[in-house]
Amino acid sequence: MPASSFRFDNTYARDLPGFYAPWQPASVPSPSLLFLNRDLALELGLAADELDGPEGAAIFAGNQVPEGAEPLAQAYAGHQFGGFSPQLGDGRALLLGEVTDRLGRRRDLMLKGSGRTPFSRGGDGKAAVGPMLREVLIGEAMHALGIPTTRALAVAGTGELVARERPLPGAVLTRVAASHLRVGTFEFFSARRDTDRVRQLAEYAIARHDPDLAGTPGRYLALFQRVAQRQAALVAQWMNVGFIHGVMNTDNVAISGETIDYGPCAFLEAYDPDAVFSSIDQGGRYAYSNQPPVTRWNLARLAEALLPLIAEQDTEAAVSTAVGQATEVIDAFPQWYAAALLAGQREKLGLRSGDDEADRALAADWLTLLQEHRVDFTLGWRRLADAAGGDEGPLRALFPDPQAPGAWLARWRSRAENEGGTALGWTVRAAGMRRVSPVVIARNHRVEEALSAASDHGDLAPFRRLLSALQRPYDETPDQAGYTEPARAEVTACYRTFCGT
Ligand code: AMP
Ligand code: MG
């Protein structure tokens, strides 16, 4: 029986009473399995064959709680678009519990769209097919790009309609995460001046994500630094693939360093640092190029929550020392980010170590070139790899004037040829560049097309085809051709993503 193939061990439920509300998923009329991630099921040690049927559908729709699960809604707060909401929490999600995967890693299993909870406020606790399949597509795309992310294990249709701008078919997503600890989880207890619980949470986070820090003096500051470093690395990876999260509220920032909560996210098409696609982000707070500074701002909110722990004593002197220490970390963030970004850009440029300032300028000038000529970000990088392989034609063809990149290309070639040590040959360099610059990303128009076929017509074929293309983002085979091209500029200019809540 598949229900028993989950071997739950629920530390959150066990160790953190008072941090959640035990709760049961709502029953739905007619569960059906729309998607099962067999690779991930295998990774989790689950019996994929047994889950791929009616019993799996019942589990993933929330109708059958698997043995050993202890469903609960987690409490959290969050800064949303800069303003603090002291009480958010799982309004339409439930943590089922934790399992240990085949590599020994503890992973959360969470239902999303499983009905109202004590944290639902005005919401219905439900989710629609489109946004849940979107989370599958983007999450799997990020995973295939080597970017830390939560992943979708399954999506079940519920057989009911959910009331949105128009009625939409409902679904429940099963999400797998290193944990669901967020900056906002710390803020929840810090806002209530409950320092004991902030400490309990920090100890839990350390045990789970940074066990080498357990019991060490100064561990709370060290935890903060680790979170900041993970975020620096993560956001640098986002920037190097042109990913725009869309809603970087502190409740959507995971302590683990995984990308979490795929709502109104999108990938860049023509390179534009100001790009913002989210319909609710009218001020552009979470625009592409704002992501690094916003991350730093979010980290400062975490520092505030951790401050009483970092200070250890409630004296003015101790607190002021702690503020200084936390500020040092926050001030180091831009350098960590810049180093991670440059390391990624160097790989994409086919370069190895060199003069940081010169290489930063080389990368910045490349991006300016893409921006000035409205060149597609993904294809620009990919065709640069082709140029390294000996054919500049496809790259030049991306520019309205094929002469436009000439001077920059000459500069890049001479920089590459002047690498110290054992210089890479151009063929090797091109192959390396193709391994870090994808040819297939989740193009907005392709995502929308797949989701509307699924949601409006119950046709999952386009979703499955797109998913399979996204799982091989670096492969430029003939069957990938339909997924490599950008939308027309007019389409992208009008493109808006919605939260789907
Ligand atoms: P999100 O924008 O998905 O990060 O969600 C922000 C907050 O709104 C979280 O507390 C969610 O649980 C809650 N929320 C989002 N959608 C719903 C819904 N349909 N019903 C209840 N709560 C929701
Ligand atoms: Mg959220």
The biggest sheet, with number of strands, parallel, antiparallel or mixed sense and barrel status, is: 5 strands, antiparallel
Number of domains: 3
- Rounded to an integer in angstroms, the radius of gyration calculated over CA atoms is 23 Å
Cofactors and ligands present?
Answer: adenosine monophosphate, magnesium ion
Strand order, largest beta sheet:
2-8-9-7-6
How much of the polypeptide forms β-strand, as a percent range? 5-15%
Structural class determined from secondary elements: alpha+beta
Number of helical elements = 18
The topology string of helices and strands comes to: HEEHHHEEEEEHEEHHHEEHHHHHHHHHH
Secondary structure: number of strands = 11
Uncertain residue ranges: none
The averaged pLDDT comes out at 96
Helix content: 40-55%
Tell me about this structure.
It is a single chain. This protein has 501 residues and is an alpha+beta fold. It folds into three domains: 3-180, no CATH class; 194-346, no CATH class; 350-501, no CATH class. The chain is 45% helix and 12% strand. It contains 18 helices and eleven strands. Strands 2-8-9-7-6 form a five-stranded antiparallel β-sheet, sandwiched between helices. The model has no long low-confidence stretch (mean pLDDT 96). The site of adenosine monophosphate has 18 residues, from loops.
